[in-house]
């Protein structure tokens, strides 16, 4: 088996604010291999996005601090890597797509220029991206523009050549998101971090964008960290799933295993809140209580105060991962009993 | 309760000082009838005319043609006083609980403001309004202790509860719900949806529930209409439309609906 593409071990992150130090990540643990699409799910404020930003090293330090843990990308430790080396990875080997396609394109540059810039930057560390004939400034630029047009065609934008000269405001939300996907993939990354890539889109466009992503991932054999709060999206395209709660991964494994036999009480609660077919009106179960404050998080398992199965022992220490079945692990002291109790 | 008869709305747009704009047809001869006590879903993508429709029903804008009847009364023919009375019977809950509450008003002021505006219809004095505000808060699952707090002290779900309490303040019969849960997490969404269902049963409300999320509509509504580019392309009971959609567009919507219950079998990859 090849070594993992991304290995996050016991990652802890604190953010300093006016109100004190928030312990935002509390030992995130995740291993992602090539060709795998990991869905990272959880409620607002559970630490999904900062995990993604940490991998891309996009959180400014300070206010962010990493007291403990490691993020290894293809064997290289990312935490503490000099900024210059991070820049050679970002946009080239690690691609990113963010949620809001309306704010992530620069409104004062044409689509083509923005794509060409990224292609040229990526080509600085891997010249082969632009082909063998791209010698000299003019030829490199031409090659980068061709590549940009080719990428736009690949993401299913009609008339790619014409769209290179379009301004961001001339495109619809779905088209802009395609442009951003093209931008993320233009350097042929090994790892793609997609933070809510379809949340701002209509369902039919969402379906297209997800299919597109899936196709590209298979073709380029990328690894993907798909950050979302939408379990239906995860069910549609992910191979694996990690559920986060208040800064911890509480359950992880193959998507079918986790969705069919959720082992963590929190995963169960999340799934019970989704209006699936055949649920009678009024029969949905929400999750009582609120997400804990990260300024003074509860000790031990952070879900314990809201957990129907909590015992005194749960508040003493952070539970370790327990193997529940093939390809499924749960960080819960009562993992084995969840099924029986529900 | 509410009836739309061939309602159209056309906006002039794209024009400049030297250029005639092309009219945009936001709604094209839309006809709908919603019965009292019913929960009616309206599904469509962005730009399909959902919001225009709510603006017309609230009479924030006038239809270009067609009639909107509320309990048989033509809304366009009402005078100022009658219109005001009508507005106290039709209220709206907005999509974004972060943007739709004034950050400088306390919950008390937010919830009592509609009673003040419609004091003729509501007829409560100062003390009565405060008492009603407490009742409303307990109705939506908040308490009297929340009365003098500000919106920023609440979570998204709680804010949406405040928005619902405000909408109920004038004792409306028809509630327009414009994507009331799309800004919320699933666990919170479930609570708010249950609250809405519960309120409807208790208060005999009529809902016009607007959403792009078919799963939410399926959970809350009896009937639904699918709107596309200003036209109703399909209408019927939820069960019928979602299981046997007749129009091509509705079929496509149902097919692309990310449904958790129906796991996708990943399509074979191109080129591998």
Write the SSE topology.
The complex is a heterodimer of chains A (342) and B (272).
Chain A (H helix, E strand, L loop, with lengths): L5 E12 L2 E13 L4 E5 L6 H8 L8 E10 L2 E2 L5 H7 L4 E4 L13 H15 L10 H19 L5 H5 L8 H13 L5 E5 L7 H18 L2 E6 L2 H7 L2 E6 L2 E7 H6 L4 H8 L49 E4 L2 E3 L7 H4 L1
Parallel strand pairs in A: 3-8, 3-9, 6-7, 7-8
Antiparallel strand pairs in A: 1-2, 1-4, 4-5, 9-10, 10-12, 11-12
Chain B lengths: L1 E12 L8 E13 L4 E5 L6 H8 L7 E6 L2 E2 L5 H10 E4 L13 H11 L1 H4 L3 H14 L16 H13 L5 E5 L7 H18 L2 E6 L2 H7 L2 E6 L2 E7 H6 L4 H9 L16
Parallel strand pairs in B: 3-8, 3-9, 6-7, 7-8
Antiparallel strand pairs in B: 1-2, 1-4, 4-5, 9-10
Helix pairs in contact in B: 3-5, 3-6, 5-6, 6-7
What does this structure look like?
The complex is a heterodimer of chains A (342) and B (272). Chain A has 342 residues and is an alpha/beta fold. Chain A has 11 helices and 12 strands. Chain A has helices at 48-55, 83-89, 111-125, 136-154, 160-164, 173-185, 203-220, 231-237, 255-260, 265-272, 338-341, and strands spanning 6-17, 20-32, 37-41, 64-73, 76-77, 94-97, 191-195, 223-228, 240-245, 248-254, 322-325, 328-330. The longest helix of chain A is centred in the middle third of the chain and has 19 residues, at 136-154. Chain A is globular, with a radius of gyration of 21 Å. The two termini of chain A are 37 Å apart. The model of chain A has no long low-confidence stretch (mean pLDDT 84). Chain B has 272 residues and is of the alpha/beta class. Chain B has 10 helices and 10 strands. In chain B, the strands form 2 sheets. In chain B, strands 6-7-8-3-9-10 form a 6-stranded mixed β-sheet, with helices on both faces. Chain B has a 4-stranded antiparallel β-sheet with strand order 2-1-4-5, with helices on one face. In chain B, a hairpin with a 2-residue loop joins strand 4 (65-70) and strand 5 (73-74). In chain B, helix 3 (107-117) packs parallel to helix 6, helix 5 packs across helix 6 (156-168) and helix 6 runs parallel beside helix 7. The radius of gyration of chain B is 20 Å and the shape is globular. Chain B starts with a strand and ends in a 16-residue tail after the last helix. The A-B interface holds A 43-44, 173, 202-207, 211, 214-215, 218-219, 229-233, 235-237, 256, 259, 269-279, 281-282, 284-287, 290 and B 45-46, 155-156, 185-191, 193-194, 197-198, 212-216, 218-220, 252-253, 256-264, 266-267, 269-272.
């Amino acid at each position: 088996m090849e070594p993992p593409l991304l290995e996050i071990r016991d990652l802890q992150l604190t953010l300093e604010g006016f109100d004190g130090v928030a312990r935002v990540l509390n030992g995130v643990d995740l291993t992602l291999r090539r060709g795998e699409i990991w869905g990272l799910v959880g409620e607002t404020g559970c630490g999904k996005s900062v995990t993604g930003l940490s991998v891309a090293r996009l959180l400014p330090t300070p206010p962010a601090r990493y007291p403990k843990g490691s993020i290894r990308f293809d064997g290289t430790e990312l935490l503490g890597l000099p900024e210059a080396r991070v820049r050679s990875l970002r946009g080239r080997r690690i691609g990113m797509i963010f949620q809001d396609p309306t704010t992530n394109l620069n409104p004062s540059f044409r689509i083509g220029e923005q794509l060409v810039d990224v292609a040229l930057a990526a080509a600085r560390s891997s010249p082969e991206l632009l082909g063998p004939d791209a010698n000299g400034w003019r030829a490199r630029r031409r090659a980068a523009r061709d590549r940009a047009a080719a990428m736009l065609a690949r993401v299913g934008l009609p008339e790619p050549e014409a769209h290179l000269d379009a301004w961001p405001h001339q495109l619809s939300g779905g088209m802009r998101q395609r442009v951003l996907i093209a931008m993320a993939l233009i350097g042929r990354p090994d790892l793609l971090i997609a933070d809510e890539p379809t949340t701002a889109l209509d369902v039919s466009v969402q379906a297209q964008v997800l299919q597109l992503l899936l196709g590209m991932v298979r073709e380029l054999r990328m690894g993907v960290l798909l950050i979302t709060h939408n379990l239906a999206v995860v069910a549609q395209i992910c191979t694996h799933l990690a559920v986060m709660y208040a800064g911890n991964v509480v359950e992880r494994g193959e998507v079918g295993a986790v969705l069919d036999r959720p082992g963590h009480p929190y995963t169960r609660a999340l799934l019970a809140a989704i209006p699936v077919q055949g649920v009678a009106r009024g029969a949905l179960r929400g999750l009582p209580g609120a997400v804990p404050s990260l300024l003074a998080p509860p000790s031990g398992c952070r879900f314990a105060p809201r957990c129907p199965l909590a015992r005194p022992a749960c508040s003493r220490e952070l539970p370790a991962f327990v193997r529940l079945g093939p390809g499924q692990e749960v960080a819960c002291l009562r993992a084995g009993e969840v099924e029986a109790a529900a | 309760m509410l009836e739309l008869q061939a309602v159209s709305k056309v906006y002039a747009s794209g024009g400049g000082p030297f250029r005639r704009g092309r009219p945009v047809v936001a709604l094209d001869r839309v006809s709908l009838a919603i019965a009292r006590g019913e929960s009616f879903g309206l599904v469509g993508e962005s730009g399909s005319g959902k919001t225009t429709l709510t603006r017309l029903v609230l009479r924030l804008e006038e239809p270009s043609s067609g009639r909107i009847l509320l309990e048989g009364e033509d809304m366009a023919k009402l005078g100022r006083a009658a219109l005001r009375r009508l507005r106290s019977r039709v209220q709206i809950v907005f999509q974004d609980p972060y943007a739709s509450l004034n950050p400088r008003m306390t919950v008390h002021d937010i919830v009592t403001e509609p009673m003040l505006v419609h004091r003729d219809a509501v007829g409560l004095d100062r003390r009565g309004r405060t008492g009603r505000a407490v009742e409303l808060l307990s109705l939506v699952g908040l308490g009297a202790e929340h009365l003098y707090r500000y919106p920023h002290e609440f979570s998204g779900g709680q804010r949406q509860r405040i928005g619902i309490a405000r909408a109920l303040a004038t004792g409306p019969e028809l509630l327009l719900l414009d994507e009331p849960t799309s800004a919320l997490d699933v666990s919170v969404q479930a609570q708010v949806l249950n609250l809405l269902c519960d309120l409807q049963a208790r208060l005999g409300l009529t809902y016009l529930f607007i959403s792009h999320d078919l799963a939410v509509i399926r959970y809350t509504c009896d009937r639904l209409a699918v709107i596309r580019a200003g036209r109703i392309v399909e209408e019927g009971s939820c069960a019928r439309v979602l299981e046997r959609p007749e129009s091509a567009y509705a079929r496509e919507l149902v097919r692309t609906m990310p449904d958790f219950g129906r796991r996708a079998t990943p399509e074979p990859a191109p080129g591998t």
